[in-house]
Amino acid sequence: MPAVYAIGDTVASDAWNGQPVPGLAPAAKQGGAYVARVIDAQLRDKPKPPHFRYQHMGSLATIGRKSAVADFGFVRLSGPLAWWFWGAVHVLFLASLRSRVAVAFEWMWAYLTFRRSTRLITGKVD
Ligand SMILES: Cc1cc2nc3c(=O)[nH]c(=O)nc-3n(C[C@H](O)[C@H](O)[C@H](O)COP(=O)(O)OP(=O)(O)OC[C@H]3O[C@@H](n4cnc5c(N)ncnc54)[C@H](O)[C@@H]3O)c2cc1C
């Protein structure tokens, strides 16, 4: 179907220099921006952009309550500093100020109360 696009976690692609694109938020965002450019070109009767190529900006992962690793190739961090960096990056990349404040508050509350932070939606959402 020419007007239907699959991006992000719904698709497997070798657009990382021939390697599989990782199932990460930046990959989904880059896919979204790419499809927007394709649709824009279609609407304006312009040539289609070249094939999608994923740009890897780095890797971040948390380990428990106070440790993380951050690897940007030229700089690598680990431990509590990387943990705070991980949190700040995730909050800053959210779409609106409202989301940033809400998520920062929820994460801080979950951290202080030792509550497991919610990453899955399993019931009715109000
Ligand atoms: C526990 C966990 C931790 C992760 N940690 C990281 C991390 O630290 N860094 C990182 O980069 N990535 C992380 N990821 C991966 C990242 O979350 C995904 O790669 C990214 O969210 C994919 O974006 P997406 O838009 O493809 O899908 P999603 O973000 O899953 O968005 C899909 C949306 O579609 C909605 N939807 C589903 N079905 C329907 C329907 N029938 N009708 C309407 N809407 C629907 C869903 O509710 C959802 O909002 C993590 C994932 C998990 C599960």
The bound ligands are: flavin-adenine dinucleotide
Rg on CA atoms, Å = 18 Å
Number of domains: 2
Mean pLDDT score: 89
How many DSSP H or I helices?
3
Q: Give a short account of the largest sheet.
A: 3 strands, antiparallel
Q: What is shown here, in short?
A:
The chain has helices at 25-43, 80-92, 97-112, and strands at residues 59-63, 67-71, 76-79. By secondary structure, it is of the alpha+beta class.
Q: Can you put this structure into words, describing what you see?
A:
- With 126 residues, the protein is an alpha+beta fold.
- The protein has helices at 25-43, 80-92, 97-112; strands at 59-63, 67-71, 76-79.
- The chain has a three-stranded antiparallel β-sheet, covered by helices on one side.
- It is globular.
- The structure holds flavin-adenine dinucleotide (FAD).
- Residues 8-10, 23-26, 28, 60, 119 line the site of flavin-adenine dinucleotide.
